[in-house]
Design a protein that fits this description.
Length: 230
């Protein structure tokens, strides 16, 4: 059975990862392996011993990692998790294994390859004109996104899917080896793909929308890469 590495947070001395990510991996026939974001001063990064990586959602990303000072609107961050994931991304990509970034995970992919973020889209981007932190449960959709027709993502969700939304940070400057493949109606970046087709970032939470076959297909198409690599 192939193993999918999943990143997590530590809150109140407990390891935290959304059950919906775990359930999705298990449903599709893979073994989830959850990583605790330990300080690299305490323990070195483990060798890559999994078949693919999912970067899960979580807190804001510490702006020092994209060469900015913190704004007043920045929320709680976890520098240990940030550094752990940056190293994990590098090792995984160097091993030519697929990486799927969800929510914060998409932003981490961008930062890992020298892209930058809006620390708060409503303060730093006057064009942000729709609700990106929905008041409804994430099992319900909130707004549409426009997906590039030629992208891998479009093969799963089409070019105009209805998605959920729960973020106040977003990609500002795209990393050089990525393409923007989906945007919200107000121009906020909603999905990116690496030029080598090994990495996909999704700003929304498809794991919360699996009643929609198109959202589940994001995961099945991602896991299909395992068969091509191995």
């Amino acid at each position: 059975m192939k193993t999918i590495g999943i990143t997590a947070s530590i809150k109140n001395n407990q390891l935290v990862v959304d059950r919906s990510i775990i359930d999705t991996v298990v449903k599709l026939g893979y073994l989830p392996l959850v990583f605790a974001p330990v300080s690299l001063k305490t323990m070195p990064l483990p060798n890559v011993n999994f078949d693919a990586l999912i970067l899960s959602d979580g807190p804001d990303i510490t702006p020092i990692f994209y060469n900015e000072e913190p704004l007043p609107e920045l929320r709680e961050t976890d520098p240990h998790r940030d550094q752990f994931e940056l190293n994990l991304i590098k090792n995984t990509h160097d091993s030519n294994l697929p990486i799927l970034g969800i929510g914060r995970g998409m932003q981490m992919l961008n930062v890992a390859f020298n892209g930058t973020l809006f620390q708060d889209i409503y303060v730093q981007n006057s064009g942000a004109g729709i609700q990106h932190i929905q008041k409804n449960d994430l099992s319900l959709e909130s707004h549409h996104v426009n997906v590039t027709e030629e992208s891998e993502l479009a093969k799963a969700v089409g070019t105009h899917p209805y998605v959920n939304s729960n973020h106040h940070q977003a990609i500002k400057t795209i990393a050089n080896n990525f393409n923007i493949v989906a945007t919200a109606p107000d121009g906020i970046i909603e999905a990116i793909e690496s030029t080598d087709q090994t990495m996909l970032g999704i700003q929304w939470r498809p794991d919360k929308l699996l009643d929609d076959p198109k959202q589940e297909k994001i995961f099945t198409n991602f896991f299909d890469k395992l068969q091509k690599i191995n």
